[in-house]
Every structure is written in C-alpha cells, then in structure tokens.
Write a structure and sequence with these properties.
- With 663 residues, the chain is mainly β.
- 6% of the residues lie in helices and 52% in strands.
- The protein has a single domain (2-661), classed as TonB-dependent receptor, beta-barrel domain (Maltoporin, Chain A).
- The strands form seven sheets. The protein has a 22-stranded antiparallel beta barrel.
C-alpha cells in the first residue's frame, strides 16, 4: 500500500505541472509550430520538432550577448545527483544527504564584500543566478525523481513555454527528504522558482526575471556516542546506535535556512547588431553597445533550534535546554553596467574584437542576530577589458574594487589569456588574480548561546597564478595553480592543555600569522578502448599548512564503464567508480554555529577506496540510473569517517528517472 501511494503521488505531481492555461500565440509563431507538428504527423523528414527547438540561456550567457544552448538529453553523469558526491568537487560531511557539508579540496572563495559566513548547506541552495531561461515553441516540461521505492526521495518538476514568440514563462519545484542512516539525520527541503524571459522583436531589449524560494531543514544528532563504532564486528543496525541528541519531531534539534530572492535584469542594445546563424535556433546576437541594470532583493534567515538537555556532551559546557539562535539578513543590490565592443564589419567580425565593460554596484545589508542589529553598505566599481585576436586567442582582464562602505579596500583583480594552439595540439589558458577580502561576519562577531566573540581581523590577501592545458582529442586536461595566502582565517578549538571539561568543544576564530604557500595540480585523463571508457581525475595539494587547511595531499577518482546500444533504441552505460584520498587531520563540527573547525586532537582517519557500481540509460526521452553506492562495505571496510565522530553513509541502492516532454 505504501508503494502504491508513492506511485500515485508521483503521478499527481506530474499532472499538476502540466500547463492548464494557454495564451493566444502570434500568427508567425503559431505557423511555425503548426508546420513542425504537421511534418511530424505526416512522417516527413523536414522541420521535425526536436530538442533542438528547446533552448535555454543563463544570466552569465546574457552578459556576453543573446544566445542559447540546446537542452541536454544525454544520460552521461546522470547518476551524480547528490551535490555532496561530485567526482570533480568532492566533500566531507556528516554522513547523509542534506547534512552539513564542506569542500574536501581547497577551493578559493573569489568574492569580496559582505558575507555572512554560513556555508554548511550552500550546496543544497537553489541560487537566483542558477536559473535557466527558455525558448520553447511548444510547452516543455521535465519530471525528475530519485529514490522512488526508498525512504529518501528527491523530486524535481519544471514546466515552461512561450506564451508569445518573445515571452517565455515557467516554473520549477524541488523537494527532497532523506531519513539518513543513524538517528536524527533527517533532512528535507522545499525549493521553487518562477522565471520569465522577454525579448523585443528587434532583439534590442531583454528582460530576465525570477523569484526563488528555499527552505532547508537539516536535523542534528550531535554524532554517535560510540567513538569506536567500526571496531565492533557484531554491532547492530545503524539506527540502533545511540546519538548525543535524541529529540524527535518538532522538538528535534535542527538548522533551518530560509533564502528567498526576487531578481530582475534589463538590458538594451544600442548601435549595430551582429548576428551569427540568423533565423536559426542557434542564432546569436552580438551588440556593439549594451546598457544594463539588475535589481536583486534577497531575504535570508539562519536558525538553530534545540530543546533538550545536553546529557551526552554534544555542546560546550553549559546548562541551557532551549536554544534558538537566529540570524537574519536582508540585502538589496543594484548593479548598473555599460559594455562597448569594437569589431570589424566583415563576416569574420569575431576577429580583432575589443571589449570594454564599466559597472557600478551598490549593496545594502540589514543584519540582525540576538540582541544586535546593524546596517552596512558597499559601493563597488567594476571594469573589464578584452581583446580577441581571433577565435583562437583572447585576453581579458577584470577589476572589482570597493570604493566606499563597510568593506572599503576589498578588491579582486583578475587576468586571463586563452590560446587555442590547434584542434590537434590543444588549448592553453594562463590566469592570475589578486584578492583583498574582508573577514566574513561570523569571524568578526557572534552572540550565540554557546559561543560569543568580537574581533577585528585583518583582510585576507590571496595571490594566484595558474596554467591550464587541455586537449579533447586525447581526452586530457590539466591545471597547475599556485596560491600565496596571507592572514588566512579559520575556526579552531581553544587551547586546553589541561583538558578542562569546561573548555571542551568551545571554538574561536583564528588568523594565521604566516603566509600559506599552496601548490595544487589537477589532472584528468579519459581513455577509450572500443566501447569501454576509463575516466580518471586526480588532485595533488601541497602546502606548508595542510593541517590548518584540513585538506588531503592527494585525491583520485576513477570510472570504468561500458557504453552499448540495447535493441537499437536503449543507449546505456554500465560501470563502477572508485574514489580515494590520503589521510588528513579530519575537522570536528560545531553544531550550534554550523562550522567545521580544527580540534586539539588532530586525528587522521584511515582512508579507503570507496566503490560505487551503476548503470545509466536513455530510452527515447527518459533518462534512468541505478546505482549501488559504497558497495565494498560488504567486503571491506565496515565504515569510514570524513568528519570526527560522524560516520559516513552505509551502502545504499538508489534509482533515478527523468522524463522530458516537448511536443
């Protein structure tokens, strides 16, 4: 009965996202659509309506011109649904989907200005600048589900259509629920978005707008009580293990994030317009002068709730039962920009192109936590220059400087040279940037139940140089990066040489007095032997402060799979993945503030290859995957850690399916 109810719910969700109201289309648009349908009904080979006619753009793409990409209908990498387990962006976390997560590798934060410092659930947020805007001659919808017959469920639904040839509207709904493997690992979220894209008939005016809503709830169990969990070969099921926090239902300890935003961007092209692939779905409009304005209103709320005695020492010393630590931030951003392009009038106008970008951004932040509120603002000047010698060589430079406000003096200067040697030899990319960044707010001031501090740290300065080479013809990509980091900020457990119980688990922000030199080498190599594929990815990180950064020296990922065609209609991949990293001082986790920190124990956990087996397939317009993750738990090891005291997930089976409808 439970299974039947879930199937019924999935069907009802599918139906609810089908459009129920259709607007009258203009004559030109209707004729094109009728021709496509007539051709398909008549079994003709001309103007068949396909995925080529369902296209999307993004905010980043629209900053370069007006062009679109075709929707992805392939099943490649479809099995990597979990944002925590991305092969080229791995993480450490608390052991289940939706729980607090941190990057495993060193990934620089290239932002300036005001930041809250809350990052533990960022991988699960739906960001306003991630929204896709569509062009679709007929309604396009997609339904995505992972789990299906299991307690963990991830559901996504999307529908969009052009109500006129120039206006597309649509919406998305995302929902997830994961019960985890141990007590109090439940996670659930509800995320939704409404979006619209309007382009004038002369292609000079574009309007992008969206409204995004996030509500994430991540339960905290304080870790398992048994610190030697995997040494007991006769241990019972994971959900029978005692955890430090035991509250249930509405009284369960949890982090709740709300992140809602409204975004609107208008752009106007002035002067000559250059067109590539005119009158085709792949058409590109390149302006010579562009003016733009963006408005973004964002409302964020971070709350930690607990209402039980701390009998198992999950928190620092204290007798607090009820904890309701809340931080609220309201942000209004206005961004004005002007771009000028100088290029020839010949058909080869993409050669010898000069670009100049000028911009001004004003941010206003209203911040409030327990017993404290303040108003901050920043004025940011932006500039960018670029020169494209041809479609093979381009040089760009960007400048972002805060010239007034709370974070005065922050800057990010960046330069890049992109050189295509040849399709056979490959491409070289040279890069460099300088960053001066203010401390995030949680490093400067906190007034929570278990932690209070107020500091005035120096800005963090980062210098970076990079060299990248890629050659798709042989499946190779590589990048070497050097970082020089001054005044690095991190969280640590306070010094406690006498192991005083009243000082355990109390953390503080710290600033490293010495410079960090970090070398990061990334290599990817994909091999193909007939229908067999062998993809490889490795990252080597070496610095004089790997322990402070809490990163492994080596991380590798390998995927061996077979690609075939079943009954001439089912394209499929069948294979397995293996990932591994060298030991490193695993951080601990401060529950009430949601931060990973370096503890005084400095324990390095043994690491093991983790093996996943999987299959993906495409049948017409449906993509499917079946995966069994951490399958080697049935052989060795019994389990493993990436964060101190928090065991990682058990072996688990997952099924996913995605349907696309566009006719």
């Amino acid at each position: 009965m439970k299974v039947l109810l879930r199937i019924l719910l999935l069907v009802l969700c599918s139906i609810s996202f089908l459009p129920v109201v259709y607007a009258q289309e203009e004559e030109e648009f209707s004729s094109a659509l009728d021709s496509a349908r007539a051709a398909e009904d008549g079994k003709e080979d001309t103007v068949i309506y396909s995925a080529r006619y369902v296209r999307y753009t993004t905010l980043a793409m629209m900053k370069q011109g007006t062009f679109t990409y075709q929707i992805d209908t392939l099943h490649q990498n479809f099995q990597y649904y979990n944002p925590q387990n991305q092969p080229r962006n791995p993480s450490i976390h608390l052991g289940s989907y939706g729980l607090a997560t941190r990057d495993l590798l060193f990934v620089p934060n290239k932002t300036i200005g005001f930041q809250t410092g809350f990052h533990s659930l960022e991988r699960f947020l739906y960001q306003s600048d991630s929204v896709k805007y569509y062009r679709a001659r007929a309604p396009f919808s997609e339904l995505y589900n992972v789990g299906f017959f299991f307690d963990d469920q991830i559901l996504r639904a999307k529908v969009t259509q052009n109500v006129t040839p120039r206006l597309n509207i649509g919406g998305e709904f995302h929902a997830a629920r994961a019960d985890g493997y141990y007590i109090n690992q439940r996670y659930n979220d509800v995320k939704s978005a409404l979006f619209a894209w309007y382009e004038s008939s002369d292609h000079r005016y574009n309007l992008l707008t969206n409204a995004v809503f996030n509500r994430l709830t991540s339960t905290e169990n304080g870790s398992v009580v048994n610190d030697t969990l995997f040494r007991n070969t006769e241990r019972g099921p994971s959900d029978s293990e005692s955890t430090r926090l035991r509250g249930t239902r509405d009284e369960r300890p949890r982090h709740t994030w709300r992140d809602n935003s409204v975004f609107l961007r208008q752009s106007l092209f002035v002067g000559r317009l250059d067109t590539i692939n005119a009158e085709k779905p792949e058409q590109q409009i390149l302006p010579t002068n562009r003016m733009s304005h963006s408005l973004n209103l964002r409302f964020r709320n971070f709350q930690f709730y607990k209402n039980e005695e701390d009998i198992n020492n999950a928190f620092p010393f204290g007798d607090n039962v009820l904890t309701q630590d809340t931080t609220k931030v309201t942000t209004i951003t206005n961004d004005f920009g002007y771009s000028f392009y100088l290029r020839g009038k010949s058909l080869a106008f993409i050669k010898n192109e000069v670009k100049l970008d000028l911009g001004y951004q004003h941010d206003m932040h209203w911040y409030r936590d327990r017993g404290y509120s303040t108003f901050l603002q920043n004025s940011i000047l932006k500039a960018g220059v670029g020169y494209r010698f041809s479609d093979r060589v381009s040089i760009t430079g960007d400048l972002n400087q805060i010239v007034q406000g709370a974070n005065f003096g922050d800057y990010l200067y960046e330069a890049k040279a992109d050189i295509l040697l040849s399709n056979t030899i490959g491409r070289v990319v040279l890069g460099a940037y300088l960053q001066n960044k203010s401390p995030e707010w949680l490093f400067q001031r906190v007034n929570y139940t278990y932690h209070q501090w107020e500091h005035n740290f120096d800005k963090t300065k980062t210098t970076n140089f990079s060299f990248a080479y890629e050659n798709p013809s042989i499946g190779f990509s590589g990048k070497t990066e050097y970082f020089l980091i001054a005044n690095h900020l991190y969280f640590r457990e306070i010094d406690n040489p006498s192991v005083d119980a009243r000082l355990l688990r109390i953390i503080e922000p710290a600033q490293l007095g010495n410079n960090i030199n970090l070398l990061k080498i990334t290599v990817g190599q994909n091999f193909k032997f007939g229908k067999f594929h062998f993809d490889n990815y490795a990252v080597y990180q070496k610095s004089d402060y790997n322990a402070v950064l809490a990163i492994p020296e080596l991380y590798t990922w390998h995927s061996l799979y077979y690609n075939g065609l079943l009954y001439k209609i089912v394209d499929f991949n069948l294979g397995f993945d293996t990932r591994f990293n060298t030991p490193f001082p695993a951080p601990s986790y401060a529950i009430n503030i949601g931060q990973f920190y370096n503890d005084n124990a400095g324990i390095e956990f043994s690491t093991y290859p983790i093996v996943d087996v999987w299959a993906t397939a495409t049948l017409k317009r449906a993509n499917l995957f079946l995966s069994y993750n951490f399958i080697n738990q049935f052989v060795w090891p019994d389990g493993y850690y990436s964060v101190r005291r928090y065991p990682m997930n058990n072996a688990n089976l997952r099924i996913g399916i995605s349907w696309k409808f566009y006719d």
